Amino acid sequence: MNPTHIILPRHSAVKKNELKRILTVAVCWTIIDLLIYAFRLATQTYTPKYETTVVGSIKTILLRELNVFIFSLIIGYFLIAVLKHFLPNRSPWFNILIKTVLLVVIAIGMNFFIYFTYSLLIEQQPLSVAFDKFINNTFRSKWLLEKMPEWVLLFILTLLTIEINHKYSQGVFFNIIVGKYLHPRDEKRIIMFIDLKNSTPIAEKLGHTEYFKFIRDVIYCMAAGIAEYDGRVYQYVGDEIVAWWPHTKANARKCVNALIEARKILNHNAQQFKQAYDIIPEYKVGVHAGNVTVGQVGIAKKELVISGDTINTAARIRSACTELNQKYLVSKEFIKLLNMKDWQSESQGKIDLKGKNENIELFALKI
């Protein structure tokens, strides 16, 4: 099963984030083009070949940047929404090369529309005049060769930025760049561990390759539910997801809602899992809230690491799901944040968790 075939809510957070990234690409490219254009006009080192009236008029600049913005939206859409699964079995550099070539072709098309709209709206000339100017100035002069390095550099930097953004969870790359966690910081967070149930028998049944695809699809569904309620994925460890929220009552509710949403997404795709793997995935969850230490580690590969008793306890709570035959287990600290009704949770008593000196009262969520 391919992640592109997984059914998500119509207005899911995944799709909303895609729209935000598309808009960000369009705005950034338009601003960059405007700055370069203004700089060249100011230094008198550049005269746009399509302009035959007053060079650099307000109307001309607005028309140009409108074209740039519209085509940047189109390019951003193809980059982020259409081509994200393009050539999945080829190397990232080959992907970047092919996508850059496609983007250059689209950029040439954008340049034609700049000629076309300028001739039509500013000069009030027919389309044939704009086409002749476009062919002469683009392919019968050195203009295209002069613009090509600028376009290629911009496209490659954009593609690399998108790849880096995919690599890190929301906000992680920015925090590394600004050095927020160069020195360890103590914070209060809600930590959630999600683990696939019966993973060993499933792996034996499917084999290594199919099991990997199965895990990938399950994680996609679960992570979509987490993203829907502003959760941030800390780690993917095999068939396990570790997510977190800032320590607030509102985020405690979001944590529970994220679990409900992830379950809905899995249920919506149950038939596809059944057809692809003959398995409908089940999972177990452990949640705890408290103090953690967050810091940056690594040299060649930098990561933000969460450590402390809270994250260890959350992992132990997740493990206790098997022993207590429960799907969702949370700590008393998390229950206090939730302010749930009595019928929405059930105390399991004080449980002896491995590695803990004192027994901890756990609650099963009835959601």
Descriptive report:
With 367 residues, this protein is of the alpha+beta class. The protein has 2 domains: 3-167, no CATH class; 172-365, Nucleotide cyclase, GGDEF domain (Alpha-Beta Plaits, 2-Layer Sandwich). It is 58% helix and 17% strand. It contains 12 helices and 8 strands. The protein has helices spanning 13-42, 58-82, 92-123, 127-139, 143-167, 172-178, 199-206, 208-228, 249-268, 270-277, 309-324, 332-338; strands at residues 185-196, 232-237, 240-246, 283-297, 303-307, 328-331, 345-351, 360-365. Strands 1, 2, 3, 4, 5, 6, 7 and 8 form an 8-stranded mixed sheet that branches. A hairpin with a 2-residue loop joins strand 2 (232-237) and strand 3. It is elongated and about 80 Å long.
Topology:
Blueprint: H1 13-42, H2 58-82, H3 92-123, H4 127-139, H5 143-167, H6 172-178, E1 185-196, H7 199-206, H8 208-228, E2 232-237, E3 240-246, H9 249-268, H10 270-277, E4 283-297, E5 303-307, H11 309-324, E6 328-331, H12 332-338, E7 345-351, E8 360-365
Parallel strand pairs: 4-6
Antiparallel strand pairs: 1-3, 1-4, 2-3, 4-5, 6-8, 7-8
Helix pairs in contact: 1-2, 2-3, 3-4, 3-5, 7-8, 8-9
